[in-house]
Write a structure and sequence with these properties.
Pfam families: DUF4177 (PF13783), HTH_3 (PF01381). This is HTH cro/C1-type domain-containing protein. InterPro entries: Cro/C1-type_HTH, Lambda_DNA-bd_dom_sf, YjzH-like. One of its GO terms (molecular function) is DNA binding. By secondary structure, this protein is α+β, with helices and mostly antiparallel strands. It has two domains: 57 residues, 434 Repressor (Amino-terminal Domain), CATH 1.10.260.40; 59 residues. It is 37% helix and 22% strand. The chain has a three-stranded antiparallel sheet, covered by helices on one side. Helix 1 crosses helix 3 and helix 2 packs across helix 4. The longest helix is centred in the middle third of the chain and has 11 residues. The radius of gyration is 29 Å and the shape is rod-shaped. 14% of the residues are buried.
Length: 133
């Protein structure tokens, strides 16, 4: 089962114990302590022994996944674009994208809407940035 290895290391350091001292206090093999701290996996019996030696509730050692929700804001930027039959030329797309990046916007997607002849006079760049609360 998964375990909070960082917590075990922190508790061991609070007691100023080496891995070997923790192994002795918990009645476990030194190699078992090394594996637990490195791989963050443990058997139920070893978990009980560690909790007792570290003087914590057994459930305190459980690994808890934290899911962090992020919020984003989006914006679109139109870039002139002459493409199609008998049209030639493209504006400086790099410059337009870099100008938005300076403001903390990250390029997400480029959309090129076309008319019935397959031509287009603009590109629409979609940008996003994380909202900081």
């Amino acid at each position: 089962m998964k375990i909070n290895a960082d917590l075990i290391i922190r508790l061991r350091h609070q007691k100023s114990w080496s891995q070997e001292e923790l192994a002795i206090a918990a009645g476990l093999n030194l190699r078992t302590i090394q594996r637990i701290e490195k791989e963050a996996t443990i058997s139920l019996q070893s978990k009980k022994s560690l909790a007792s030696a570290l003087e914590v509730d057994i459930h305190d050692l459980d690994y808890k996944e934290t899911t962090e929700m992020k919020s984003y804001e989006y914006k679109t930027v139109s870039i002139k674009f002459n493409h199609g039959w008998f049209k030639k030329g493209i504006s400086n797309v790099d410059q337009a994208l870099n100008e938005e990046a300076i403001g903390g916007w990250r390029f997400k997607q480029m959309v090129i809407p076309t008319d019935s002849t397959g031509g287009s006079e603009q590109m629409i760049a979609i940008f996003e940035r994380e909202l900081v609360e």
